[in-house]
Amino acid sequence: MIKIHKILILALFFCSSKSFALIEVDITRGNLNPLPIAVSPLFSDKKSNTDLKTDLNIENIGEEISTVVENNLKRTGLFNPLEKKAFLQNPDLAHLKPRFEDWSLIKAQALVTGQVKFENEKLRVEFRLWDVLAAKEMMALAFTTVPNNWRRVGHIISDKIYERLTGEQGYFDTRIIYVSEQGPKTKRIKKLAIMDQDSVNTKYLTLGNELVLTPRFNPTNQMVTYLSYFKNLPRVYLLDIETGIQEVVGDFPGMTFAPRFSPDGKKIIMSFAKDGNSDIYTMNLESRIVERITNHPSIDTSPSYSPDGKFITFNSDRSGFQQIYVMKSDGTNVKRISFGKGLYGTPVWSPRGDLIAFTKFRKGKFFIGVMRVDGSGERLLTENYYQEAPSWSPNGRVLIFYRETKSNDKGEGFSAKLWSIDLTGYNERQVPTETDGSDPSWSSLLSN
Amino acid sequence: MYRSIFISTAFHLLIIITTIFSLPFIAKKPLDLPPIISVELIQITDKTNIPFAPKAQKIIDKAKEEEQKLVSEQAPPKNVKKIKPEAIPLPDQKVDKIKKTEDKQNPEVDDNKVKQVSEFEKKEIFDPTDIAALIDKSKENLAETNIKSNKVTQSQDKSMNLSGLTLSEEDALKAQIFGCWSIPLGLPYNENLLVRIKLKLKPDGTIIDSEILDHARMNKPGQSFYKVLAESALRAIQLCQPLRVPTTGYEKWKNLQLNFDAREMLEG
User: Fold this and answer.
1) Are residues A29 and B265, on separate chains, in Cβ contact within 8 Å?
2) A12 lies in some domain
3) Are residues A333 and A408 in the same domain?
4) Distance from CA of B159 to the nearest CA of A (A)
5) CA B243 to CA B210: how far, in whole Å?
């Protein structure tokens, strides 16, 4: 009885919610303009500058680091770094205590300040992120490193700012491996090249004697798997970037291609072709045990694991046309997910797990697009004459791919360039490379 | 047996009651409504400043009179008989007052008759000697004042409807904040992206205090985006300061709740 009373009282309490008279206004729209951010040059004293000048050949290390940060943020399309000339407060004072009125006057909503010191042969970089409108500090961090690492510090700072302001992991302290291409179309020299995501510090990993294709980063460390030719047969290789040691993966009596690492980095998944039939295989890098995943008379290729390692997406022409499929990682429960018109290929599972990126060919055009893992919500982000091989940034927000231009009969006018596009489809940018480039692959965060 | 029937009925009643009263509040705006075209409704004041034509004045007076009569009709004449034997003919000021105002026609009418006739007639055939009837009258007066006070609450109700912002006022405020709010683009699509912020405002629209209502959610694991979203909403408010609030009715909007929902933008 008492209980019933209680329930009745509770019910009355719910009913009484009507009398709550606070005015509510729903704000369901905003603008998608990039956030105005002021990246004040990091303050570095004269002594540090002169000391570092001899080491690094840089006039003002603080300014250089802030430029790295500024460029990183600008490329995301989510931030609008303000013109430095407009800044009213000098870096030497701004890093102590910003005058927020000065910064809000130039319409900055966030502010980055900091200082660089050179002490005991080490570089100490401090930075602070301020909310200009609320006039409070959002984050403060300090890094100590060897002077040569100053660019990486800039990238790590960018990552921290990006994380704090968007709520997502950054992707600046990363590298991109790609196939560097030189020479005429008919006689291309292809080398493996690696660079920072901002196109600096390019290194060539192979000499260009053999054809190389489809390099892929290991998600957990600095290993790369790629396709090269061994005794005139395409074979999957493994390369340690730090040591430069490379090896052939497995001893298959035929050609192996389209390699990719499993999310834990312990397995390589690839296609193995024999007698015109191609199926998907995995090889455990520790035990060297090879496992067959698909067994179908059609061509199954381009496998890619889901980030939890439980599923695999691949493309197959088992329906008569090349389409995208998803199956369990043991090869069971194969399900077709792409049903649009055209051919689908190179599916890549997003590191966030929510989307699969793909290349689509339809009516003589190539598209890079994304769809949900069940095949719904297909969105084509970009269209061009020829483009393919999307690779995800580690936070699953940006895709890098390559695009080739049309050449004439003599092979002139041909070029291959790397491009990036974010999930909105609006922020499309060319990624500069020293030479022509193709088959890019984005590494995971180096600092993890 | 009876106990369980009782419990069952109670629960059924409870469900019905909660359904009637609570459901509309729980299911907040189930439909995705198209943008509202705002039409300003002009409030007609109680007293119009347009002078009445003499004829109209008469009609209004008549209507008022009728209203009064109607009011008197509502008085319960039931107790007349009961009170009668106990009635003591004491001269009372109140009664006198009533006497003066009342019509004194047909003074000799007995109680039974009074009971039978309508209240309208009863007014006319008032018997000053009958105290019981007088008491009854005073009750009628009471009833009248009651109804009057009811009327007051009705007009209060009218003003209650006005206690929210008018559509144009709300739209002005919305439009201002739409311009200031930069939605962080890195938000997950499949999460609840609603931030409720309670504001205390000065009469000029500047903010005295702002409070995030789901503050605890900020520090929950896996909800780091929520902090980013909440901060963006706070920035929008700061950026928009002073808010475009109406020039009048400060008491109504001095406490204001803004519900920032990014979902529509990100999905749309």
Assistant:
1) yes
2) no
3) yes
4) 13
5) 13
